Amino acid sequence: MSLLRQSFxxxxxxxxLAAGLKQDEFADRCGFARSYMSRIETGGANPSLDAIEVLAxxxxxxxxxxxxxx
Length: 70
What we know:
By secondary structure, the protein is mainly α.
């Protein structure tokens, strides 16, 4: 499993929790299955650029904010 995918997933989870959203609520907001959202947050999925854009919009952050600081 990629360290980048794990870090990305952790960041998505942090932002989701900060927004006060449960995983299933957030998945619905994004139009994703809850199982896919779980895989994103655990680093098991490799989301496309389009999916990353959807995640950012649903969290009301920039795409850049989804990636942990280097």
